[in-house]
Design goal:
Elements (H helix, E strand, L loop, with lengths): L1 E4 L2 E5 L3 H8 L5 H6 L6 H9 L11
Antiparallel strand pairs: 1-2
Length: 60
Protein backbone atom coordinates (compact mmCIF):
# COMPACT_ATOMS: atom_id res chain seq x y z
CA UNK A 1 0.00 0.00 0.00
CA UNK A 2 1.41 3.40 -0.95
CA UNK A 3 0.68 6.38 1.33
CA UNK A 4 0.66 9.70 -0.52
CA UNK A 5 1.42 13.12 0.93
CA UNK A 6 0.41 16.13 -1.15
CA UNK A 7 0.10 13.90 -4.19
CA UNK A 8 3.60 12.42 -3.82
CA UNK A 9 4.52 8.94 -2.63
CA UNK A 10 5.59 9.38 1.01
CA UNK A 11 5.52 5.91 2.56
CA UNK A 12 4.94 2.28 1.74
CA UNK A 13 3.14 -0.07 4.12
CA UNK A 14 4.19 -3.72 3.95
CA UNK A 15 3.34 -6.75 6.02
CA UNK A 16 5.48 -7.69 9.01
CA UNK A 17 6.41 -10.89 7.19
CA UNK A 18 7.69 -8.97 4.15
CA UNK A 19 9.58 -6.56 6.41
CA UNK A 20 11.25 -9.42 8.27
CA UNK A 21 12.31 -10.93 4.93
CA UNK A 22 13.85 -7.60 3.87
CA UNK A 23 15.71 -7.22 7.20
CA UNK A 24 17.00 -10.81 7.34
CA UNK A 25 20.76 -10.92 7.72
CA UNK A 26 21.17 -7.14 8.09
CA UNK A 27 22.62 -5.62 11.27
CA UNK A 28 20.40 -3.65 13.62
CA UNK A 29 21.14 -0.10 14.77
CA UNK A 30 22.45 -1.53 18.05
CA UNK A 31 24.79 -3.85 16.14
CA UNK A 32 26.10 -0.89 14.12
CA UNK A 33 26.67 1.22 17.24
CA UNK A 34 28.45 -1.57 19.09
CA UNK A 35 30.67 -2.25 16.07
CA UNK A 36 31.97 1.33 16.05
CA UNK A 37 35.42 2.40 17.17
CA UNK A 38 36.32 1.86 20.80
CA UNK A 39 36.67 4.88 23.06
CA UNK A 40 40.16 5.76 24.14
CA UNK A 41 40.82 6.47 27.82
CA UNK A 42 40.72 10.25 27.35
CA UNK A 43 37.26 10.21 25.76
CA UNK A 44 35.92 7.74 28.34
CA UNK A 45 37.22 9.92 31.20
CA UNK A 46 35.68 13.05 29.66
CA UNK A 47 32.29 11.33 29.31
CA UNK A 48 32.35 10.15 32.92
CA UNK A 49 33.43 13.49 34.43
CA UNK A 50 31.04 15.80 32.61
CA UNK A 51 28.45 17.73 34.63
CA UNK A 52 25.48 15.59 35.61
CA UNK A 53 23.07 18.54 35.81
CA UNK A 54 21.07 19.85 32.85
CA UNK A 55 22.69 22.70 30.95
CA UNK A 56 19.36 24.56 30.87
CA UNK A 57 16.10 24.65 32.75
CA UNK A 58 13.64 21.90 31.78
CA UNK A 59 10.73 24.36 32.17
CA UNK A 60 9.03 25.29 28.93
Amino acid sequence: MIVPLRGERAAVVISAEDYDALRAGRPTLVDDLLAGPEWDDELADAAMTRAKIPSRSPAL
